[in-house]
Specification:
By secondary structure, this protein is mostly helical. The chain has one helix at about 1-70.
Amino acid sequence: MRDFWIAAAEARDRFEECIEELYEDIVHKEGVLEREEEEAKREAEEKKRHAEEETRKRQRRKQKKSSKTI
């Protein structure tokens, strides 16, 4: 019977180690996902700024062309 309790305790210890490893993996993946999300937001903001700049440039060019033709 003693062997049973030793085996049960070892199994419990292994189970607890697995749970700790899973928790660490989850925390790590959450951190990675948060960083990726922040990076995606920054990239989207950069693209938006770039598009706005291009729009302003086009508008300036149109204004210059229209003022030259007058």
